[in-house]
Amino acid sequence: MRIASLGHAVFAATMIALGILGLIKVDFAPLWDPVPKSVSALAYLCAFISLVSGIGLLWQRAATAAARVLLAYLLLWLLLLRVPGIFLAPNVEFWWSACKTAVMLAAAWVLYVWFAADWDRQRLGFVTGDKGLRIARVLYGLALIPFGLAHFIYLKNTVSLVPGWLPWHGFWAYFTGCAFIAAGVAVVFDVYARLAAALSAIEIGMFTLLVWVPVVVAGSKDTFQWSEAIVSAALTAGAWVVADSYRGILWLAVDKR
């Protein structure tokens, strides 16, 4: 096995789980919704790609190929199915979907940079080098900003998700929204980026742990809640990988370019 970090292992396990879920349901995992009817027939293929790529990421001989395939797959998904929707139907649903894909794409890109072989570095140096890593981080940072804005646009829904045992529900809704926006800006402009990436990964993880895990444990039959729990877990894994990419960089480093 080839484990570059704990985040890498969790991300790979998440892709495996999404693949298995897609194969069992013979449908797209919730992370990829909404899916146009024109590609609905590809659900089995996409699930297979997720499963095989996840397994490959944990196998030393296949890690490079798995990261390459996953990066290409997610990049095509973003460019062909998400970006057009932003302009053709500019609503929150498409922005949210594009941002989910961007987080997973950023994580896959980081892994490709880590596992790139000599062939990749020689022929795809822009993708596998520092510039490629920078693009991956910027994608992640840009995705965080709409996450934060959604807290204000859907304030009532956000407040309703705050665990009952926490006081000041409104405060936490505003605070977490501002935190996402601040983290996104910090990552995009490379100002305290390592700290911002780590804290944003923790924030997404806390949403998963405090909001959605209790729902799952309680045995909820609400399809929407289960879908959101799966999405939140996947985004946690993706954010974790991006945060891991800052290892060796000072927590309060500022890019002076």
**General shape:** globular
Output the helix-strand order.
HHHHHHHHHHH
Percent of residues in beta strands? Answer: under 5%
Work out the radius of gyration.
Answer: 18 Å
Kindly name the structural category.
mainly alpha
Written account of the structure:
The longest helix has 26 residues, at 63-88. 75% of the residues lie in helices and 0% in strands. Helix 1 packs antiparallel against helix 2 (43-57), helix 1 (6-25) runs antiparallel to helix 11 (223-244) and helix 4 runs antiparallel to helix 7. 40% of the residues are buried. The mean pLDDT is 90. It is globular. The protein is an all-alpha fold. It has helices at 6-25, 43-57, 63-88, 92-115, 118-123, 125-128, 130-153, 155-161, 169-188, 193-217, 223-244. It has eleven helices and no strands.
What's a quick, concise take on this entry?
The protein has 257 residues and is mainly alpha-helical. It contains eleven helices and no strands.
List keywords for this structure.
single chain; 257 residues; mainly alpha; 11 helices; 0% strand
Produce the secondary structure layout:
Elements: H1 6-25, H2 43-57, H3 63-88, H4 92-115, H5 118-123, H6 125-128, H7 130-153, H8 155-161, H9 169-188, H10 193-217, H11 223-244
Helix pairs in contact: 1-2, 1-11, 2-3, 3-4, 4-7, 4-11, 7-9, 8-9, 9-10, 10-11
